[in-house]
Amino acid sequence: MIVLPDLVAGGLAAGTLSALALGGGLLRLRRQQARQRAEIAALRTQLDGSLRSFTAEVEHLATQRVPAAARQVAHPHLRVPGPLQPLTTGTALGIALENVVLALQSEVAAQRTRVDAAAQAGMRGATREIQAALYRLQDALRGLQQRYDDPELTQTLFRLDHENEQSLRRAQVAAVVCGAWVGLAREESHLVDAVTGGQARLAGYHRVKVHNHLEAGTALVSHAVEPVAIIVAELLDNALRHSAPDTDVVVSLEHVHHGACVTIDDAGLGMTRDERDRAQRLVAGDELILLTDLGDPPRMGLAAIGRLTRQFDLSVDVSSASPYGGVRAVLRVDSHLLSTLDPADRPPAASAPRTTRKAVPDRPASAPAHAHAHAHAHAHAYGTETGAPESPPGHSEPLDADGLPQRRRRTRAAVPEETPARRPARRPEEAAAALGALQSGTAAARAAAGNTTEDVHADAPADDTDQTDNEGGAAR
C-alpha cells in the first residue's frame, strides 16, 4: 500500500476546491451573459419598434399633416390631422413635430402675402393704364356727342359712352382692391347725386327705384363723393345680378341719428348664413384681403367696398334679410362726412329724384303767437273769408265821425298760386330719345329755313349757316 504524503493530499484537495470554484464562476458568468443577451435583444426589438414608429410619424407628417397645414393657411375651415401615434402628444417628439407644422404655416402665410402683394402691384399698374385710356375714350365720346347732331349717331354715342362707363367701373374697382386711389377728385355734391351717379354706371339701372327722404341740400364732403358712388354701384350691381330681371331694386335715402343711410333692398334669393358671414367680413374691411381669396374668376365688388369703408370711415351692413326676400344692404355715412348745399344755388341733377320732405316755412319773428293761433282758427272756419271777419247779424257796425255806421270793405280771399307739378325725372334713354327728337326737329327746321332763305335771300347764305350752327350748339 502506497501512502501519499500529506503535502500531496493537501495539494489535491486544494486543486479540487479551486476547480469547483472556477466552475461555479463560469456558470454564473454564462448565466449573466445569457441575461444580457436577452436584454440586448429586447432593447433592439424596442429600438426597432421606435424607429418604425418614428419613420411612420415622419411619413405621416410629410404626406398628411404638412399639406393640410399649408391648405389651412388659405382655407381656415380645413382641419389639420393630428400625429399618427396619439401617445406622442405632449412628448418631446410630439412638440417637435407640432413646431414643424406651425413654422410651415407661418412661412407659407408670409410667402403668400408677399406673392399676393407683388401680384397686386402688377395689377395696380395695369389698371391705372386702363383707367387712363378709358378716361381719354370718355372725353372723346363726349366731344363727339357735342359735335354731331345726327340722332342715330347720338344714340350710338350714348350707348358707347355707357359701355365705356361700365368698363371704367370694373377697372376702377380692380384698382381699388389692389390698393390704388379711387381715381377721381370731386367737389361737394348732393348725396342723392352720388347715389344716382353709382346707378348710372350699371347695365340694369332702369330697374333701380330711388326714394329720397333726405332734407333738401344734404350733401357729401368732397373726398367722400366718389367712394360713396363706388360703394353704391357695387351694392346695386350685386342686387341686380342676384335678383330676377323683372323685379325692382329699391333704394331709400334716410336720415339717422349720426348721419344718413342708403338702404338697398332686392327681391332675389338671398344668401345663406355662411355667405352672409363671408360678405360681412369682406365689407367690414377688418381683415387683410388677398387676390387669392376672391375666387376664380375674382369677385372684387365686396372686397373694394371693404377697402373703401376702412379708408374713408364708412360702414356697410349686409347681414340682414330684405323684406322682399333678398338681401338688405345698408350704407351708413356718418355726420362728419356730410355737409349742406343750398339747393337754390346748387340744385341736384335733373335726373335725381326730389326729396319727399316738405320744407317747413319760416314763421315771422314779429308775428305774435296768439295772432298766429287766431288766423289759424279762422283758416279752418267754414264760410269765412280772409281779412276782416263779417259782423254777425244784429251786431252794430263801428260808427264814423258823423255817427253813421261804417261799412267794412270785404276783401277777396287770396287764391294760392298753383305750382306746376314737377315732372318725374327722365331716364337716360328717355333723355337721349328726347334729345334725338329735338335734334331731328332742329335739323328739319334748318332744312326748311335753308330752303326758304335760298329762295328769298339767295345772296346771303353764309350768315344763315352761322346762325344755324349757333342754334344747334345752344340746343345741346
Describe the structure.
It is a single chain. The chain starts with 5 loop residues before the first helix and ends with a helix. With 476 residues, it is α+β, with helices and mostly antiparallel strands. It is rod-shaped, with a radius of gyration of 46 Å. It has a 5-stranded mixed beta sheet with strand order 2-4-5-7-6. Residues 365-405, 410-422 and 450-476 have low confidence and may be disordered. Helices cover 55% and strands 9% of the residues.
Proportion of residues in extended strands:
5-15%
Distance from first to last alpha carbon: 163 Å
The chain-level structural class is: alpha+beta
Helix content: 40-55%
Strand order of the largest sheet: 2-4-5-7-6
Short note summarizing the structure:
By secondary structure, the protein is an alpha+beta fold. The chain has helices at residues 6-74, 92-147, 151-177, 191-199, 222-241, 273-284, 301-312, 369-379, 428-456, 461-475; strands at residues 189-190, 208-212, 218-220, 249-256, 259-265, 315-321, 327-334, 338-340.
Question: Which keywords apply here?
Answer:
476 residues; alpha+beta; 5-stranded mixed sheet; 9% strand; disordered C terminus
Write the layout of secondary structure elements.
Elements (H helix, E strand, L loop, with lengths): L5 H69 L17 H56 L3 H27 L11 E2 H9 L8 E5 L5 E3 L1 H20 L7 E8 L2 E7 L7 H12 L16 H12 L2 E7 L5 E8 L3 E3 L28 H11 L48 H29 L4 H15 L1
Parallel strand pairs: 2-4
Antiparallel strand pairs: 1-3, 3-8, 4-5, 5-7, 6-7
